[in-house]
Q: What sequence folds into this?
């Protein structure tokens, strides 16, 4: 993978915080067992010595990610996450035509390590997400997801429980989108194997609001990366 120039990822920066638009396929932190591969934390530390990543996004998830430039900023952000004061909004493309209108999914999540997450009403930790349908296509829906808690895979597994798995999320039975399935008369050349429009699950951290050290709101909008934007463009064109 070609690693991005960290400066090019920055959406916001002041004396205390940097917010980046994390590209897909870049881990937020060192993976357990340390493979030594480049990640957001390593790139951030090259840019600012004391940088700390304040929360994490799944490796395949793109979008807004907060980085603290000093210990005080890190504590300040951590307290906001702990008290659920950070306002996070994600966009996801899901299978099917689903109508969500301020749907609250309140299903406890058990993380039994090894990236394995299940809904467990007895042992799981509280997990809540609010879902709203933003745009309907013939075969898919663009959904706004607002996690109130911050459990691992929370949005992904909560959507799967609503029979609305994120496209391309094979862990939760989400199927990839192929151009041949939405464009009439689409023909592959002989011997060519069709690739999905997006080579990952379609989840993007779109919007973020948190408070800086001066108690002023920092409001972030993270534009879609190229693959997500292409998927939306093709759905607009062929599946509307």
A:
């Amino acid at each position: 993978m070609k690693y991005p120039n960290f400066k090019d990822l920055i959406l916001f920066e002041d004396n205390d915080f940097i917010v980046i638009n994390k590209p897909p396929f870049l881990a937020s932190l060192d993976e357990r067992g340390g493979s030594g591969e480049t990640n957001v934390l390593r790139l951030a530390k090259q840019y600012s010595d004391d940088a700390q990543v304040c929360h994490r996004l799944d490796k395949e998830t793109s979008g807004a990610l907060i980085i603290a430039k000093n210990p005080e900023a890190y504590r300040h952000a951590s307290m906001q996450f702990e008290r659920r004061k950070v306002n996070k909004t994600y966009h996801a493309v899901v299978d099917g035509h689903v109508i969500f209108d301020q749907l609250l999914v309140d299903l406890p999540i058990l993380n039994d390590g090894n990236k394995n997450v299940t809904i467990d009403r007895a042992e799981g930790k509280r997990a809540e997400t609010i879902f709203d349908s933003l745009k309907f296509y013939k075969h898919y829906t663009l959904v706004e997801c607002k996690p109130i808690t911050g459990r691992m895979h929370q949005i992904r597994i909560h959507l799967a429980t609503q029979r609305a798995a994120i496209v391309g999320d094979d862990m939760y039975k989400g199927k990839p989108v192929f151009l041949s399935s939405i464009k009439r008369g689409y023909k592959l050349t002989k011997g060519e194997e069709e690739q999905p429009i997006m080579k990952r699950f379609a989840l993007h951290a779109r919007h973020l609001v948190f408070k800086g050290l001066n108690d002023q709101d920092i409001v972030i909008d993270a534009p879609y990366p190229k693959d997500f934007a292409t998927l939306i463009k093709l759905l607009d064109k062929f599946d509307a």
Observations:
- The longest strand covers residues 87-95.
- The mean pLDDT is 95.
- The radius of gyration is 18 Å.
